[in-house]
Design brief:
mainly alpha, 2 domains, 9 helices, 62% helix, elongated
């Protein structure tokens, strides 16, 4: 076991009861699945906190994802060009995306002198769900249907979107065995 100089890898091998070379593969797999750099010592520390009966790579990844993100001293001191980046814009929620989509669609329809029934997003969702049934109309499916119809240059109204939602629900039911 002296082939591996890193004591954290020794600890990973001991915890997983495997050969030290396998511990390297396990640590690499955890980093790959996590999608971010993690030290071997951190992996070993997290592994110790998991009961042996529940210890698996998946359990380690879940624990590592739940840990609070800490800034390293180097990143706190860094004065490189990455410090001048503007903060990332917050992600839009599905409802905000639907609100923007409806507003743009109805604006285009009004510009082409087409009849438009403007309503709030909440009223729109309520109307779509009253036609489809709440179970078949989650917000994600309603947005997917509205996006597809908008790409086809269809004026969005609850009836048309509800028909597309029902069609999506039927096609998704056929795909799942």
């Amino acid at each position: 076991m002296s082939d591996i100089p890193d004591p954290a890898l020794q600890e990973i091998a001991t915890t997983f009861r495997c050969h030290p070379t396998m511990a390297v593969a396990i640590a690499d797999r955890i980093r790959e699945r996590l999608g971010q750099p993690v030290s071997n010592a951190e992996i070993a520390r997290v592994m110790k906190s998991i009961p042996m009966a529940r210890l698996s790579i998946d359990a380690v990844i879940v624990k590592l994802e739940q840990r609070p993100s800490r800034k390293t001293r180097a990143s706190a001191i860094s004065t490189g060009p990455e410090d001048t980046r503007p903060p990332a814009a917050p992600k839009e929620t599905l409802q905000e995306r639907l609100t923007l989509l409806l507003a743009e669609n109805w604006k285009r329809a009004a510009a082409n002198h087409l009849p438009v029934t403007e309503m709030s997003t909440r009223e729109f969702l309520k109307a779509v769900r009253s036609y489809t049934g709440h179970k078949d109309a989650p917000l994600r499916r309603i947005l997917k249907a509205a996006l597809a119809l908008d790409h086809e240059d269809v004026v969005l109204n609850p009836h048309v979107v509800a028909d597309r939602v029902n069609a999506l629900a039927v096609s998704e039911d056929k795909e799942t065995p």
